[in-house]
């Protein structure tokens, strides 16, 4: 019998990994420090101190005059409206593409096994559609909504509409991916039971598939809506309407007390939307 | 049913499903009408014009714009600028996430209810009102600090820091670090409040003090989750770092802003491709590290 296992004598692969990782981490850290031009001393330089002082003294107290608040009412409502229709368009984009991009729905599983058995042409066609849908979704969600907003501002002009389109496209990509994951996680026992009674595909989908996926489906969509409210509030920074536009205007004019007011409005709005969405989710 | 994947931009971790229930048809109809009214109100407010979108005019406009994007500009100097921007974006997200972890870790132990004033650690303490109340002060202060950091969006933090320290990638790092610090503080706090109390109890029975309990009973439990949340936020931050430049905080966003303002659509496509590659690589690295960590 050997006295000891080899792993006690020399470090195992796992230990090598941690050394390698630590070295790489330090290298990346040093390089990033340089590239990101980290300079904490800026805060303590005379100019930095002056602007800090200016910022905080100008910020307090917030501008709570009725005049300003009533001006902000419309952009605040506009932010909500942008988020609602952005999410709706995202569902319109994400649902069909998500269905096509669901493996068990498009190419495999009990819905297709019988049909695609020994039909290579049809099978490859289905696979083509499946990969196309996934590629489009991945493209939609990997371009950030800000870049979408900038492009839509170019394409359809300033205002809330490009914000709606940007949220719709970017969130459509995210929703589509999550929808396909939800659909794939469905328990297939009920589907088999339906199939054995002779139900057709559409019936299987509506009576076996959809009811199982619905709760997760709705709750994830609502959650995305909460995110959309936050996003639409700042998309205005690139000219897509809502509160963001007001933040930019106030910031450019150095009216920091107005910025603070808008941030407070934003806080209340996000809290309200979170509350509402939690209520609706509890109803389900 | 398994839990959907992590979200990509929003603060919270997504909810998992909902309780099933049944309602009367009347109630259903009422809610339906309410939603319909809500949608119509939003439709009018957001100046949406779907008919306009699908009209020949603006459809060709969008199509025309898309056509202008291709082919991407791969000339050496554009490519060089894109690579530089990509590395800068990576650096911003990396340093920003590290700063966020530093902020979160220095605040979160005060923001976890069971570590600061209630629960097992304090049950042996005589019920002295003032002491408990004194412990509430750092708790509430930490909680509200995290709330403020989290509420202000990254973009607005970036605007503020650009004003404070000038243009460049540094304000981007600060913006990401401060906002994400608030988010991670909240997530870490939730993890800390949900630790398994049994190891704490057994350590307490052997006479360990609170610091020892923290290091030997609590941290080993929560560390994998801390790492996994941090990696998840890193994935979010790489996307944010790519666009923070739109308000002057360096990285690819700055180049995108320039390309769009100067109508250099082909360069814009190159930069978008760079974002796509960077985001994909970071997602893979993060997934790999998460598997290693857990």
Compact summary:
Chain A has 284 residues and is mainly alpha-helical. Helices cover 79% and strands 0% of the residues of chain A.
Residue runs with pLDDT of under 50 for 5 or more positions of chain A: 1-7
Number of strands of chain B: 0
Write down the overall geometry of chain B: globular
Biggest sheet statistics of chain A:
none
Give an overview of the whole structure:
The complex is a heterodimer of chains A (284) and B (294). Chain A has 13 helices and no strands. Chain A has a single domain, classed as MetI-like fold. The N and C termini of chain A lie far apart (64 Å). With 284 residues, chain A is mostly helical. Mean pLDDT of chain A is 84; it is low at 1-7. Chain B has a single domain, classed as MetI-like fold. The model of chain B is unreliable at 1-9 and 15-22 (pLDDT under 50). At the A-B interface, helix 2, helix 3, helix 4, helix 7 and helix 8 of A face helix 1, helix 3, helix 4, helix 7 and helix 8 of B.
